[in-house]
Design a protein that fits this description.
Blueprint: H1 2-23, E1 29-30, H2 39-47, H3 59-62, H4 68-77, E2 82-84, E3 101-106, E4 117-119, E5 127-130, E6 137-139, E7 149-154, E8 157-162, E9 169-171, E10 174-175, E11 178-180, E12 186-189, E13 192-197, H5 202-215, H6 225-237, E14 244-251, H7 254-261, H8 263-280, E15 285-291, E16 294-299, H9 306-319, E17 323-324, E18 329-330, E19 334-341, H10 348-367
Parallel strand pairs: 5-6
Antiparallel strand pairs: 1-2, 2-6, 3-4, 3-13, 5-7, 7-8, 8-11, 9-10, 9-12, 12-13, 14-16, 14-19, 15-16, 17-18
């Protein structure tokens, strides 16, 4: 036991030392740095002989790449999606609710970054946003241009300006060249979605938004899987409940769409599918996005025609006309499977898992024909 305790203490001391040396690198504050207590990372650190984290003696050396033996380790420690450049010693974003901020709502990869906050400091002048490290706010995502947009504080507030980006800058779903941000506005930079929390009280509102993100999907405004299971559990606990219906569907060919047209078009197709579902679904049917192009439909009471009628309505309704994307239209289809849900028969999570698997088997069978 004493050996294990010593190893744990050594690991903690080593992790603390590496963090301190990493923090001394020039004006870089990392949001979402991977955990330093990962055993694999710690083993790599022990094998690392070069003190790559120690600041170099000159600016040229400070900006240089680490030596070859440190490259893989440095990549492991590099923030996954979002880096905020600031002088060291400033408060961490989670503690910086005394100033205006942007909050990360959606990233295609790096789910753990959702809910992080990025303080806006008017004293540093124009805040450049882009993919490369020379920006003040770095969004390391392929959909973001090298220098994508900028924010500047003036007498009327924060002005967001697109800098000729490839994939555009959007405010509340509208592509803009320049816009004065209002509190609560949703900003999309390439494929990254943020929300402005500009007015006080910020700490309380950040907590409320984080709670909201647990049950509502930012991309489509449908419920999340967690939100759906919550509704199913409420139904299961109600007295005298009738049988319910659950249908799971998936957008066909989403991988091919992403590969051919890019992931932003894929996201656009997912949003268009959610809008189509809202338009064609009968009353009393709620919609949740489970991930990717996969959705679940839930009705807590019987429906004329049952599961077959709801499945047919959805598949025919999606195929009836092309989905309207931001740039063009897309013919689409979905694969769907469903079941009656009887009171007390199965827990909601088991029912959902069973229907998802049935849909995937059906989809796989069709692709093999």
């Amino acid at each position: 036991m004493s050996d294990n305790h010593t190893n744990a203490a050594d690991d903690a001391a080593l992790a603390d030392d590496v963090f301190k040396r990493w923090a001394q690198r020039p004006v870089r504050f990392a949001v979402g740095l991977p955990s330093i207590d990962d055993p694999e990372v710690l083993r790599a650190l022990r094998a690392e002989t070069h003190p790559w984290g120690v600041p170099k003696s000159s600016p040229a050396e400070a900006d240089s790449d680490p030596p070859p033996q440190g490259e893989n380790l440095l990549a492991r420690l590099r923030p996954a999606v979002v880096i905020l450049h600031q002088p060291m010693g400033v408060a961490a974003p989670e503690d910086a609710n005394d100033q205006p901020l942007l909050m990360v709502l959606y990233v295609r990869e790096g789910r753990r970054l959702v809910g992080r906050v990025l303080p806006l400091d008017a004293s540093i002048g124009e805040i450049f946003i882009g993919r490369t490290p020379d920006n003040a706010l770095v969004l390391d995502d392929g959909s973001v241009s090298r220098r994508h947009a900028s924010l500047l504080h003036g007498p009327e507030g924060w002005t967001l300006k697109d800098l000729g980006s490839t994939n555009g800058t959007f405010v509340n779903g509208v592509r803009v060249r320049e816009a004065l941000l209002q509190d609560g506005d949703r900003v999309r930079v390439g494929g990254v979605i943020l929300q402005g929390v500009l007015d006080a009280p910020r700490a309380q509102r950040v907590d409320e938004i984080r709670a909201h993100l647990e049950t509502i999907d930012v991309l489509t405004d449908a419920a999340t899987a967690q939100g759906l299971v919550g509704r199913m559990e409420a139904w299961a606990q109600a007295a005298g409940r009738p049988e319910a219906l659950l249908v799971v569907l998936d957008l066909d060919g989403l991988g091919a769409i992403n590969q051919k047209y890019g992931e932003l078009v894929g996201d656009d197709a997912i949003v268009a599918l959610a809008e189509r579902l809202r338009r064609i679904l009968p009353g009393g049917v709620s919609c949740a996005r489970l991930g990717g192009g996969e959705f679940a439909l839930w009705r807590s009471e019987p429906l004329a025609g049952g599961v077959a009628a709801l499945t047919e309505l959805v598949t025919d309704g999606v195929a009836a006309e092309a989905l309207a994307l931001q740039e063009g239209r897309l013919r689409a289809s979905v694969t769907a499977a469903g079941t009656r849900v009887l009171p007390g028969a199965e827990t909601p999570d088991i029912v959902l898992a069973r229907v998802r698997e049935a849909m995937r088997l059906l989809k796989r069978g069709r692709s093999e024909r």
